[in-house]
Every structure is written in structure tokens, then in C-alpha cells.
Amino acid sequence: MHAITTIVTPTTTTTSPPRQRPDPARRLLKFYIAQRLGEERVDVFFPAPPNEDPAFWRPSRDIVRQYQQADLILLNGADFEKWVDTTSLPLNALVDTAAGFKDQWLMFPEVIPHSHGPHGAHSHGSVDFNTWLDPSLSIRQAEAVETALRQLSVRPETELRQRGQQLRGDFEALDRQLRELSQRLARRPLMASHPVYGYLAREYHWDLHSVHWEPDEPVTAAQWTAFDILRAQHPGNLMLWEDDPLPEVRAELEKRAVRPVVFLTWGNRPPAGDYLQAMSRNLAALRAALK
Question: How far, in Å, CA of 117 to CA of 3, rounded?
């Protein structure tokens, strides 16, 4: 959900002046859900910088103090917020929105250290935390947020339930779009630059194989050799990327008749719009590649 540890504080009155908060990252999934359900009745923010991967971000002491003062701390869960395990936070405020479907968490097939961003070499761990890419799991996470907001009494029960139903309807509409598109992908081999699309592949039966490449890094000769061997067994000509690959990487892919398709995972902020709009752009890019 993007996107994804979120602080929620009920506003005292509708006329209270806005609090001075860090940039609220309005496009993260948990922020999106909390705002859709609570709107003007809650003060929500996500303090991770937009140019960092939230999965490896650690908050400063000042930010931790703001977490400790929050009425509600929404976690994506599935081992996404690794810093939480070593930080003192009020347990009665923590809500792990993925805990209700732990039996559906995916595990990465292998843990390979790699490097991108300001954090240097790291690995994603064994749990695939990209749960928000599957709308059916986003519905489960939205239900967890709704339950938490109900306990805070941020708005009347019937109104909160109605908002929850509307949000569920939007996620179900996204699910229908993905299923329709996936019919065109049936039995078509797909490639991915990174093993982050597992929940989509499982839910929509994509025939997907992944490598471990970063969009802002060159591909080595050894990696190209391994890629060619993989494609001999799995001849996909569409390759999902978390962002635009380097021009020289794109050129090499096109020499091999492989088309890169940017499908943002939305772990942090999309370039514009909200979660549903960002996912719609992903689907539009994939549809265009299938023409």
C-alpha cells in the first residue's frame, strides 16, 4: 500500500488549524485508505522521504517521537517496516494491516544482496512485502484500517461503513480490470526485472520469471548471459520494470525483441495521482504493450 507506515491522529474539530507535519505523502496506499475512510476527521502523514525506498528507511529520533505520540500507527506488515522491530512504539496504537492474511504471504524464492539508493548493499529479506499490488489483499488491509478507525470513533458507524463499502467497490473494479487484462496474458511468458510482482502473478496466474536487476544500474555481461539462458527456457518478450531502465539496457533488450514495460510497484509515491490512478496507469502501459 506504497507506500506504507502511516500515522493517524483524529482532528479535534473541523475548524482546528492544520498541524505542521512533514510532507504527508498523500499517495501511499495506507495513507490513501486512511484518508478515504477518515478524510477531514483524521490527520494522517507518512514521513519517509520520496526518494528513498520505505522498506529500508529508518526514521530519525524526532520522527520516532511523532510516531510515539500518534493515536494510530498503520503498518503495511509482511516484514515491510523492518525498523519497527527495534523501535519502542506504543503497542496499543500499532495496527499491522497484513496480519489477518499471514497465511497468504509469499516468500522470495532466494535472498540475493544487491545495492540501490542511499542504503548500499542490502537484501529484501525472505518475505515478499508487496502485498498492496493485489487488490484482493488491499481490501483486507482496508478492512483492518476501517476497524481501527471505528475504535477511534472518528465518524458515525454508518458513515464509516458506507465509506468502506465505496472503497471496497473501487478495489473490486481494479480487480476486474486486472482479470480482464490477464485473460490476454494467459499462457504468455512474462519477464520481470525484480521479484516484486509475485502477488500479482499468483492471483492472476501470470507465467512470470524474474531476475535481479535495478533500473538505475547497468547490466553486466554475466547477467546478460544468464538472461539469455533463462529466455531460452522462458521466451518472454515483455519485461516488467519498477522504473525506466537505463537507455543502454533498453537498447540491449530491444535487440533481443524484449519490450520493457514500466509497472510501478508504488512502494513510495507515484509521480502523480493516488493509488487507483497509479495502478490504472500501470494497466494502461501493459495494455499498450500487448497491442
Answer: 16
Give which of 234, 267, 34 is closest to 128, Cα–Cα. Answer: 267
Distances in whole angstroms, Cα of residue 56 to Cα of each of 47, 163, 175, 241: 13, 32, 29, 20
Cell of 71: 493515536
Structural domain spans, the chain: 6-169, 185-290
pLDDT tens-digit readout, 183-200: 999 889 999 999 999 999
Q: Do domains 6-169 and 185-290 have the same CATH topology?
A: yes
In contact, 194 and 212? CB cutoff 8 Å:
yes
Q: Architecture of domain 6-169 in CATH?
A: 3-Layer(aba) Sandwich (3.40)
> Residue 271, exposed/middle/buried by CB under 10 A (0-12, 13-18, 19+)?
exposed
pLDDT digits (tens, 9 = 90+) for 49-106: 777 777 778 899 999 998 898 889 999 989 888 889 899 999 999 999 999 999 999 9
**Between vectors from CA 75 to CA 89 and to CA 95, what angle results, nearest 5°?**
70
Quick one: 168 exposed, middle or buried, by C-beta within 10 A (0-12, 13-18, 19+)? middle
Give the helix/strand (H/E) hosting 183: helix 157-184
Provide the 10 A C-beta neighbour count for residue 95: 21
For residue 119, the tally of other CB atoms under 10 A from its CB is 13
**C-alpha distance across the termini of the chain, in Å:** 29
- Which CATH superfamily hosts domain 185-290? Nitrogenase molybdenum iron protein domain (3.40.50.1980)
